């Protein structure tokens, strides 16, 4: 009796790289975004993205999520609560110097964070707001000429 050779099981790129984030999905999104890019001539360019780019991006995203969640878990232990809420994630990011500089323009949903708004734009009606925007676009076009 001879033993049958073990079947070769397919491994995903995430498993090969030892990641939890989906490398294939990230690669698909990168390719679709690359197709939408235009050159300086206004022509669509060919969207070619290396497979290594997707692995690298998945690695960075996984590292950042791991870092944020580890710090949030520490703050949950300190406050003796049971859940990581958006408010805790927000305060965790604001308390860490490196994460604060990385996420400076990010607003987290349901974290009761107050955004920074231009007071002049808040007092304008919708019609005046769009006229203000159009005048700014016209000025930029005149400067470019």
Automatic annotation (TrEMBL):
Keywords: Chromosome, DNA-binding, Nucleosome core, Nucleus. Residues 8-93 form the Core Histone H2A/H2B/H3 domain. Gene3D superfamilies: Histone, subunit A (1.10.20.10). Its main location: nucleus. PROSITE patterns: HISTONE_H2A. InterPro entries: H2A/H2B/H3 (IPR007125), Histone-fold (IPR009072), Histone_H2A (IPR002119), Histone_H2A_CS (IPR032458). It is found in: Chromosome; Nucleus. It comes from the Eukaryota. GO terms for molecular function: DNA binding; protein heterodimerization activity; structural constituent of chromatin. One of its GO terms (cellular component) is nucleus. Belongs to the histone H2A family. This is Histone H2A.
